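FAQ: What does a ligand-bound record look like?

Like this one, built around fe (ii) ion:
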Amino acid sequence: MSNVRVKKLEGAGAEITGVALTDMDAEDLTAVQGAFNEHGLLFFRNQSLNERDHIALAERFGRINVNRFFASHPDHPEIALVAKEPDQTINIGGAWHTDHSYDHEPALGSILVARELPPVGGDTAFASMYAAYDALSPGLQKTLENLNAIHSAKHVFGKSKGYYEQQDKDLNGRIGNADSAEQLTDAVHPVVIRHPLSGKKALYVNPGFTLHFQGWSAEESRPLLDYLYGVAIREAHVCHFHWEPGSIAFWDNRATWHFASNDYQGHRRIMHRITIDGCALSPATER
Ligand SMILES: [Fe+2]
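The answer part, i.e. the structure of the complex:
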């Protein structure tokens, strides 16, 4: 029988104990997968994974998706480097967003492993998009269930925008491939999805990549999007994860947002991220 224990956290996610991720048997895997399907965000402590272990772990949950914009590990292209050096000021992911919503088939999620941590700070906040949806009135829920939204990466990873608008040298090889952002066609997703793993309804717009509602102008969309973003980051829907050596977060992009704090200036922070392929998203109105 599996020793996996699942402790639901305040706000979002669950902490998993009783398992070594390098040594999961079939029952452990079923228990971890079940917790992931339900909570969309899992934290593990005191794990010991080298790069190969990290890749093998990710492959147990799906096919690896190599991110086109992040620098990758020199020996393991499957691993994206989420790095900030002591003399750099910009951090990656330092605003609320969910990864890959600009893709037509957004990535399922990522497994992030802490490699080098600052002495203080560098926490990551996560918000539950199930909780965000549940907090809305039935009338607004119904309205949103009939809407799609347009998502793009051009304003974040494209030429002369987003990261590139800031100090060029500070990116220092961390972000690249701006041409491919320019070539992406905008993605259209339901504003409320039927989550492919849990079957629950989740809000699926985010401040990082959502441009506007389909058929609405950006100006018309702004007030409602801002309202939804305000609901999404209410403290009751958020958890703050403090990284320690051996910490791992495994999040579902379709169920959560995240925000990497940039409060450790002068220190190095190196994280290894592996992203797992997802699927096209169905509206909540479909069962
Ligand atoms: Fe991210």
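Follow-up question: can I read anything off the structure? Yes, for example: Residues 93, 97, 99, 258 surround fe (ii) ion (CB under 6 Å).
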